[in-house]
Design a protein that fits this description.
Mean pLDDT: 96
Structural class: alpha+beta
Strand order of the largest sheet: 4-1-7-5-6
Largest sheet: 5 strands, mixed
Distance between the termini: 16 Å
Bound molecules: zinc ion
Amino acid sequence: MRVGIGYDVHPLVAGRKLVLGGTEVPFDKGLDGWSDADVLAHAIIDALFGAAVLGDIGRHFPPGEPEYRDISSLALLERAREKLKENGWRVNNIDATVMAEQPRLGDYIERMRRQVSGALGIEMDQVSVKASTSNGIGFVGRGEGVAAFAVALLEEVNESI
Ligand SMILES: [Zn+2]
């Protein structure tokens, strides 16, 4: 078994959709970035690559590449799943926390878990997503951005007996 950690931040700006865990959340701002800027999916991908010692998300899906412009990060999760498979790993479980002062995310957590688990080909009960605020402190507290943390546990496939 291998454990990995992921962390990501994107700025909240006007004129963008807010996509978290492959789920569009109604809000007057969205996250800015080269892809859909799904900060939760990105933290999860980094945790997965970290656990497999495959580098970081930028190495696999470099920003600036036309291929990744506005791409759904669920598609990136699917590609990460393929890369893990090629390297002999499968996902045991994921635990993630999204930190956003606004909007309230409680109503969207189940859908985020469904979307992420679907992209990774695992069960919903293998994906935990929690929402937190920053109690008004720092860039998250001021509503300047959204942060996400994730931990992933991988297990080796086809262990020799
Ligand atoms: Zn990102």
